[in-house]
Structure formats: C-alpha cells, structure tokens
Amino acid sequence: MVWRANLTMGCDYFNDRWLSFTGRTLEQEVGHGWTEGVHPEDRARCLRTYFEAFAKQETFDMEYRLRRFDGTFRWIHDRGAPFRNHLGRFAGYVGTCADVTETVERQPHLPAGAETEMQTLRRLLPICAWCHNVRDDDGHWRQLESALAPVTTMRLSHGICPSCAKQFLGEVPEVPPPPRCVGQFT
Questions:
Q1: Does residue 85 sit within a domain?
Q2: Helices (H), 4-88
C-alpha cells in the first residue's frame, strides 16, 4: 500500500491497494481522514511519530493497527520517507505499508515487567566515563546539556567535587558548609 503527504502534513494520495484494504474512498482518506481507521489505542502514538518525523524531515518506521474493509484490525508496518521536488526542496512524504499481522502475532509475548525493563533500557544514555559527553541516537558525541535540552526543562550547573579538584587541581577548594536551620521545633 502506498500513500503520499504534502507540505500541509495531510495525505493527498492513496493507491488502489490502500483503498481496497480499507474499503474507503480516496475522498474519505485524504487529509487526515485515514486516521479514522487507526485503532484508537494506537492513534496518538501513530500521529506523534508521524508529526515528529515530519517536523524533522526524517524517515520513520512504525507499526499500528488499521481497520480493514471487513472491520477487523490488522497490524501495519508503515515506513515514510521525505521526498523533494524538482528544485530539491522538501515537498512532503511518501510511504509504504505492509500487513504484518501474522509476524506480530507470532512474536512471543514479554513476561510481566519486561516491557518496563525494555522502556528503561531505551532511555539509557551512553556517557563517556572520562569527559562525560553523551552519544545521541545518530552516534554523535555531545555535551550532556545539549543532549538533555530537547527532553527536559531541567538545567545543569557546573562545579568540581572535592575529589576531582584534588586529583586534577592538586588542591581542595574551601567550600563553606550549607546553612543550617537554627530554629526551634515544637
């Protein structure tokens, strides 16, 4: 199945295979009409993936359930890629979809807690033990602050702990202790 989206992020083309699969007309699918067929549990994730990739003009892959003409939901693997016009300017996306229901259903189910563990592993941030730069998903090493900026509002301050100061500077700076509460408790 093939689809295309223009600069408005709305789809303006679906091939006959897509229309036969969904049992809907081109007029029903164009724009964001196609999202009506996406399973309600998958819709927000599907659209988030689509809009984030579109904003970055990056290729994406995702799986979601799409309602077939007979009303059953089938797992779809959707791959979208940016395309350029004859002047080399970004002009939208073209994508292909394949029904992968049998493959998805054959996959072993994860034991309890495994999904949480997988999410934790996905959030690991490779960090250099020496300079503390971090590696992003593209394999580039960046300062921790720039790697965290897109995902958190937390800001970092810089300092040197007494152990590093002694090792690298040969001295331990005089640091006043934090203020103590001297009030009375009743």
A1: yes
A2: 16-22, 26-29, 40-56
